């Protein structure tokens, strides 16, 4: 199969030195890419700004903003059979971007934002027979929120995790996730390394592709 995997945060610039972003480090998405390549799949990895080396055998496309990531996903999706949206896409961007560094005295204390595109919503009509997986990082009820996102975003698999736990979520090498599937099933995995979590997800997607 050919996997298209997104990873890391997006960065939404205010000016050349300032931006808004989030805590994603890309570890889960890069683990997904490493595992998919090691299992013999072609992998295109669309990465936001992260400090990680490209896994062996993976084609990497670097992007900065959510709109860049959308354009890269749209460009590479036709060649792929599976999409994993691991990236923590910034939902908002500054309404104005300055080409030069803003001076403190000329800045407003209120930052006006506008909505970024939802990448999964934007490409939903182009899913065809592809397998789509998403991730949800929650601080509340990962099951309920995960199920809502699975349905709203038209996914085959939603990987939900509780990022309020110190051993799961951002910047650590372990994760504790619940796999929620489009046919109403769920599976809670124990605390695992992100590579082990990725093994489970890629194996699930391989099986789902065989069923279609
Ligand atoms: N996602 C996306 N485009 C966005 C935001 C999120 O494609 N602009 C994808 C993520 O990559 C992930 C899934 O949607 O696979 C869920 O992301 P999440 O940030 O948890 O969901 P939101 O839609 O932002 O929902 P909420 O703010 O209600 O938590």
What is the overall pLDDT average?
96
Q: What structural class do the secondary elements suggest?
A: alpha/beta
Helix content class: 25-40%
Number of DSSP strand runs: 14
SS strand fraction: 25-35%
Keywords:
212 residues, alpha/beta, eight-stranded mixed sheet, two-stranded antiparallel sheet, 14 strands, 27% helix, 27% strand, binds cytidine-5'-triphosphate
Descriptive overview:
With 212 residues, the protein is α/β, with parallel strands linked by helices. 27% of the residues lie in helices and 27% in strands. It has 5 helices and 14 strands. It has helices at 27-38, 66-76, 119-123, 142-152, 194-211, and strands at 2-7, 12-13, 19-20, 42-47, 58-62, 82-85, 92-94, 113-115, 131-138, 157-162, 174-175, 177-181, 186-188, 192-193. The chain has an 8-stranded mixed β-sheet with strand order 5-4-1-6-9-10-12-13, sandwiched between helices. A hairpin with a 4-residue loop joins strand 12 (177-181) and strand 13 (186-188). Helix 1 (27-38) crosses helix 5. The longest helix is centred in the C-terminal third of the chain and has 18 residues, at 194-211. The radius of gyration is 17 Å and the shape is globular. It starts with a strand and ends with a helix. It binds cytidine-5'-triphosphate. Cytidine-5'-triphosphate is lined by residues 66, 85, 87, 89, 91, 116, 118-120, 134-137, 149, 153.
């Amino acid at each position: 199969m050919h996997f298209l995997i997104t990873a890391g945060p997006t960065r939404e610039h205010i000016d050349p030195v300032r931006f808004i972003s989030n805590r994603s480090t890309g570890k889960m998405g890069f683990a997904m890419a490493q595992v998919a390549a090691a299992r013999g799949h072609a992998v295109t990895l669309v990465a936001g700004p992260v400090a990680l080396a490209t896994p062996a055998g993976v084609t990497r496309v670097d992007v900065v903003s959510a709109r860049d990531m959308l354009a890269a996903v749209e460009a590479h999706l036709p060649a792929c059979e599976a999409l994993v949206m691991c990236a923590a896409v910034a939902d908002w961007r500054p309404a104005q971007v300055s080409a030069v560094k803003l001076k403190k005295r000329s800045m407003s204390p209120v930052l006006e934002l506008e909505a970024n595109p939802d990448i999964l919503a934007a490409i939903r009509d182009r899913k065809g027979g592809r397998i789509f997986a998403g991730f949800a990082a929650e601080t509340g009820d990962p099951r309920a929120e995960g199920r809502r996102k699975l349905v709203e975003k038209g996914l085959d698999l939603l990987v939900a995790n509780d990022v309020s736990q110190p051993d799961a979520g951002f910047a650590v090498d372990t994760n504790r996730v619940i796999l929620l599937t489009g046919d109403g099933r769920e599976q809670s995995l124990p605390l695992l390394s992100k590579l082990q979590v990725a093994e489970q997800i890629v194996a699930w997607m391989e099986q789902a592709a065989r069923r279609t």
